[in-house]
What we know:
Strand 8 (126-129) and strand 9 form a beta hairpin. The radius of gyration is 19 Å and the shape is elongated. The protein contains 8 helices and 14 strands. It has helices at residues 10-21, 33-42, 59-68, 84-92, 105-117, 152-162, 171-178, 189-201; strands at residues 2-6, 26-30, 47-51, 53-54, 57-58, 75-79, 97-100, 126-129, 132-135, 140-143, 146-147, 168-170, 207-210, 214-217.
Amino acid sequence: MRVLVVEDDDDLRFAVAAALRGNGFAVDEAADLPEADEALFVTAYDCVVFDRMLPAGDSADYVRRIRSEGQTLPVLFLTARDTVADRVEGFATGGDDYLVKPFAVPELVARVRSLCRRTAVTRPPVVRCGGLEIDTARRTVHRDGVRLALTIKEFALLETLAARPGEAVRRTELIERCWDELTEPNSNVVEVLVSQLRRKLGDPPLIHTVRGVGYRLESKA
């Protein structure tokens, strides 16, 4: 799940991005609305976290505009503006959720994860493949009834493959969905993570290399 965090306070933006990355999200950052506009133009996100008051203006006005253009991307407003009128205005302009500063990090993560699920409503909550069971809601993985201990990044990669079982998922798409703009696209992060994941999933192998393309989750049985 890829998230854009738009916040002009560098320390807070770093803290929010770090908290989300620590919980398995790929996170890009923007310090103002022009940066956010450029990021949204080139990248598909599952959710955007907007501070309300930014140097270029109120992000609620920006959200109102993109909603009028047909953009349905889930939006969470993260702001110190805490009156009922402020919250009503945030929802009226097209916001999907509203969290007041100061906030608890676990609540922020839970709210962002809930919003991200809205962009994947057609994805089945449990995916099964060759004895493998991936519960995307509970974020657990079992093979032949045995629970597997996966890292956050391993689960993110497996979840991305499981969203399209039997289909080849391009390496570049895996980087886009599971990492963020800080990742060097020519590095071997995907290959290393796939190797780790294959060892944990065991035999017979379920993740197959599609030469020149990427990887596929499929049982050959």
